[in-house]
Structures are given as C-alpha cells and as structure tokens.
Amino acid sequence: MGIQDQEFNIEVNNEEGGKDFKKLVSIFISHWIVFVVGLVIFCTGAYLYARYAVPAYKINSQILIDESHGGSAGDQVLKSSSIDFSDLFDMSSNSYNEIDILKSRLLMERTVRSLGLNVIVYSKGRIRSLETSDEEPFTVKLITKVDSIKDKNYQVQIENGKIHLEDSKGNISVDAKFDEPIKLDQYDLVFSQRPGKLNPKGYQINVQSVDERVDDLMRSFDVQLTDKKSTTLALSFEYSNPKKGEMILQKLMDLYLLSNLQNKTQIADSTLKFIDGQLGKVTAELSGIEGDFTKFKEENKLADVDQQGKALIDNVSTYQNKLSDLQVQLSLVTDIEKYIDAPNVKRIIPSSFAVPDPVFAAAIGKYNDLLVERDKLALSYKDDNPVVKSADDQIENARVGLVKSFESYKKGLESTVAQAKSQNSALTRQVSTVPKKERVFLDYTREQNLKQDLYLYLLQKREETAIAKTSTVNSARIIDPAKSDYFPFKPKRPLILLIGIFLGLLIPAGYVYGKDLLNIKILNKSDIESNTKVPVVGEIGNNPEGVSLVVGNNSRSILSEQFRGLRTNLQFVLSQGKSNVLMVTSSMSGEGKSFITMNLGSVLALSGKKVLLMELDLRKPKLSQNVGLDSNSTGFTNYVVSETMTIDEIIQPTFFSENCFIISSGPIPPNPTELLLSDKFNELIDALKKRFDYVIIDSAPIGLVSDAQLIEKHTDASLYIVRQEYTYKSQLNIINELTREKKFRRSYLVINDIKTKKGGYYGYGYGYGYGYGYGYGYGSTTEETPSFWNKLFSKKK
After folding, report:
1. Is the Cβ–Cβ distance between 586 and 703 less than 8 Å?
2. Which keywords accompany this UniProt record (predicted)?
3. Has this prediction a pTM greater than 0.70?
4. Residue after which a domain boundary falls, among 448, 475, 502
5. Which of 515, 522, 584 shows the shortest CA–CA distance to 730?
C-alpha cells in the first residue's frame, strides 16, 4: 500500500468517524427534552439528598501504648504483671493485641450498657429527625424484662408535663407522668425530667437490643497504628451527632484504660489475699506456742537455763538454724503446691514467695505470665479460639512441669530435713545429762523462733506487695481525647451534585442510545447503510396533511422539492431519449408505494414528459382511489381477459396533469399471477413504451407476493420504498437477496415519511427555504448530487 492509499484510508476513516459522531450528536439533540427532564430530576434529587440526608461526623482520638518493662517500683516487684505477647505471636510489639482489645465486642458492649445507648432519642423536624445528645428535656431509662428485645420505634409528645407515647403502628397509645414506669411487653420505660428546650414537634425513640446496637456501633469504629514504627493508636468513630459521638468514644477509652489497669493489679490482689490468709494461720499458731511456753515456765519456775548447757546448745543451734530454714522452705513449697495440684483451678502463684532455687523461681514466674496472658486474650477471643486453646495448653504443660519439679524438690527438702533432724537427734542424745526441763524449754524456744521468723517474713512480703500495687501505673494513656471534626464528612454535597448532573446526563443518554440500539425498525441513515448496499435515489419527508398529491404546478413545499430531487436523480439513472419503465414496490403494504407513484408521475409530467401510471397491485389496489377513480372501473384485468378491448379503452386521464394518465387495476381477479404471465401483458408494455416517455408501475409488495418479480423483466429501474419507523431492518434482506441473485437488475431505494420532529432522517431536519434538503442525503440538494452519482457510477462500473 502506497502513501497516497494510506492517506486516502485515513481520510475515509476520519470521515466515517465524523459521521458517526454527528449522528450520535444529532440523536441526542433531537431528544434534548429528555436530557433537560433528566437533569432537573436528578439535580433536584441530589440537592434534596444533600440537604436532608443524615450527616455523619468523624470523631478522632489517639492512645499511646507504653511497652517498656521497667520504671516504677511496682514494675520491679511485679514483673510478671507486664503483659507481652511477643513469644506467642512472634511480634516485637503488643500494639496489635491492644488494637484487638479496643475493637473487641466485650468492650463495646460495656460502653453501650454504661451509657444506655440502646435507647436512641430523635428530635423531629419538618422533613427529617436528628439524634439528640443531651438537648432533650428528659432522660429515658430502660428496664428490660426479657433477655432479647425487638427493635421498635415510638412517637413521644410532651405537653403540660405529661408524656404521650405511641408506637409507629398505632398499637400502643399511653399517657404517663415523669418518673412513672410505662409498662410494655418486653420492658418498662421510665421518663425523668431535666432542664432543656422542648421541641414542639415531638420526639422519636428507637429501642434496640444491646447486641444489635453493639453491631451498629462496631461497624462505625476503627483502630489503626499511626505508623508501623510507632506504638500510637489512632481511633476513629463515625456518628451522626458529634457531641454524642465524642461521649461514646471517650467512654470506650476510659473503660479500656480501667480494664488495662485492673489486669495489672490482679497479681498484687491475689498475693495480698494469700498473705493475709497465711498471716492469720501463723498468728494463731505463734500465739498458741507462746501461751504453752509461758505456762511451762510458770509451772516449772524457770527463769534462765542457758548456762546449763551453753556449750552444747551453741553446737546444736547451728544445726537448728539450718533445720528452721529447711522447714520454712518446705512449708512454702507445701502451700504453693496447693495452687498447682488442681488442673481446673488456674490461680496465680504469689511471686513474693518464690523459693530460693532460681530454676524453680523462674518456672513459677513463667507460669504466672502464662495465666495473665490467657486472661488478657480472653478479652479479645472466645474460649474455643485456637489462640486461647494454645495458651491453655501452655499453661497445662507448665503446671505439669511444676508439679513434677515440686515433687522432686519437696522430696529433696524432706530428705534434707530428715538428715538435719537425725543430726539434731544425735546432739540431743549427747545432752542426756541436761535436765529434762531444759530440753523441753529448748523445744519451745525452737518452735517459737520458727513461727516468729515465718510471721516476720509474711509481714515483710505484705508491705512489699502493697507498695507494688499502689505504684502500678497504666501502660496506656490518652494523647488526644475524643474530638469531632467541625464539618460532617458525608454527605459530600459537591460530589453528590456532580453525581446528580452525571446521572442526569448518563441515564437519558442510556435511554436514548438503548432505544435506538434496540429498535428493529429503520430510523436513520445508518440503519440502511448497515443493512444494505442498494443505493438511495431519493428521500421523501413526512406528509403531515395526509393529502395524496403534494406535487402541483405551483407547489413549492419541501415535499414537492424532494420529489423534484428524485426526478433529477432518475434522469441520471435512466437512459435518455427513450421510453423508460419504472416499477415501484416495497416490503409490505403501508409503506407509501401508491403515494410515491402518484407524485413521481406528477413531477415527471410537470417537466413536459408524457407519463402513464399503471396500477398492478391487483390484490389491494389503492392508486386509482388516490386519483379519484373507482377501484372497479375498467382497467388492466379487463384488458387482459378480453379479446376485443383496446388499449385506449383502459387509459384514463388524471385530474392533476394533462400529461399524466393512468391504467387502473380493474376488478380484483382470482388469479393475478397468471394475468402477469400472459402474452397480452407483454404486448401491453411494448405498446405503452411507444406512446409514453415514462411508464410507472405500482406493483404489489415484494415481501408478500412474487408479482413484482414477474414485472421486473419489463422495467428499466425498480424503486424499493422504505418507510421510516415502519419498515423493519430485516426486510431489507429481501431486496439484498433479489439484487444478489440478479432477480432485480437495477434496484434503488426511496426513503419515505422522514419526520423532522425526530431530527430528520439524518438528524439535522429539512433545512430552511427552497432548494435545501435535510441533512446530507443523496440528491436532496444540488451540492449533494455529485456525491450520489460518484457512488452510483462506481457501482455500475
């Protein structure tokens, strides 16, 4: 392909694209009223929505999570209270766990119950109702009778200090006073009066179940990290009332901090409780021993026995101190063992009573850490959650290990105690010479010292634990309190108005385009060009007056000019200097064959040519009626069946032109096809061609019968009538097939009944004044004629 060919193709494509665009624009312009109505409707709807839609405000706050493990005295004493999930989740930060806690359903449920958020009060307006915060002059308390309640709305009107309550369906209508319970099926409502401005239009109250309200609020709540390297959490909450939204978010954060602090003091509380119990027991035992010792000394009148066996006692004291230490450890081990014997009772082992052995102390600390981690996970997950189950398994494994370790450690202590006792027994036997009273005195002294040491130890640990509890601080703190944006973030009025304008243009455009796309009838030029290659020789506009004859001697209407354009185009189609036979046919009845035939004959006669109109639609003749003749008058059928009738007897003049004549169909025959096959019909056509310049045959529709095919062999050109908004696109296949099979040698289309109110056949109307057609059709104007003939002649070649 050469450069010139490429340029030619580009020009052709550009021209076709331009025509398609012009066609699309013309379709839209012709339906401008649809676009105006669409814009008015959608823009009005967008304005009303933006004006009266319930606004939504965004409430924001920030919380800092302090992940340090040291600092306060409480952190040093109760290191096990510092929660860290890094081992469990393989994370360097527990901020994500705090996010899960903040977003937990339990925390939101506590917030709803604390503020009574499942009872929503709306203040009525002229068009919409808005939720109030604390502006209404009353409060509503809900006293539930059943576990689950149904969502219900009530209308409230307050007049003269009385409350009138009714439901939306009108089933309930109650009058009550303030602080007087209104008894309903599932709950009671108690209204309490408070200072505030009364809304004369009344109020609406929506009562929801707690679960339903929690679900609604959780959908509007979100927590995110402000940065991947930061431990600051950004809390956002969407709510229609900014003041109430701030209150809800602030309450949720307060409950979170309170829960966080409670978790940290849990170990200290457990330790204090254990110490108090042990102090009670040791105090009772010490009091008993001291009483018995005092009584013994009084009965035996003993004042000082130290000098009686000082040397021996000094020797015994060393082993006794060792035995005391071992018995203290054994006592602690026995008490701690009670905490881990029962697998179903998960109690924290007081960290203050760690045994001297560092291995067992570390095991106890790890066990306590697992218990605290499990309690905190329970806030975010259910018991059947794999994360919680995994924590339970770790706790059980640690407990089993502790049990085994303590059994082994206890046996070792018992063995060591037994050895110490054995050594003491040996020393005791050596003091057999010491009086019996001195030995009893020594036993009391030993037991008293043991209990006294244990008592002092418990007092010391109690004070340390109390100090740790009071110095424990929260690991999270609020950086920014809950604060609402000044303007609502939705509805976004500019965006809604733009959407309204967009839909106001898109929906009508889709309607117009869809209507055009789904139409099965011929509406415009592209419908013809895409369904047939048969050239268009003329285009006739709509006949609003409904008259049969639109072409006269002095007629200057648009329709008459269009028929003159058709006449001009036919001069280039037909051979000059000889008689020409034209056949007018169509797909079906009603497309305007007779109307085209009559006016084409009239416009040809005005040029001084001698024209004959021949009505050969033998089944449904209409041409003769249009020219004012009786359909049963003498005509073609009479001539063919008669042997004596001459041609002059069937030729009749027309009322509109002295150069135009007509042969009517005559009576409707039973066998019209056989009449057209007769030799007399052939002789008639030959005779008429000698007497007239033009013979125009109005034949039957070719889409219904084959009469037109029989006539076509006598014709010089066939005019196929297509009517806008009447002829089906599929019917163009008839002329396509006849042309392809060469049953019609020279076929041309005539478009009839083009309506200006639809933007014209080509979308631009008929133009203005004499000589201007409509759009850019074939032969409508002098300027357009060469384009038509270039296409026509190129096809003939």
Report:
1. yes
2. ATP-binding, Cell inner membrane, Cell membrane, Kinase, Membrane, Nucleotide-binding, Transferase, Transmembrane, Transmembrane helix, Tyrosine-protein kinase
3. no
4. 475
5. 522
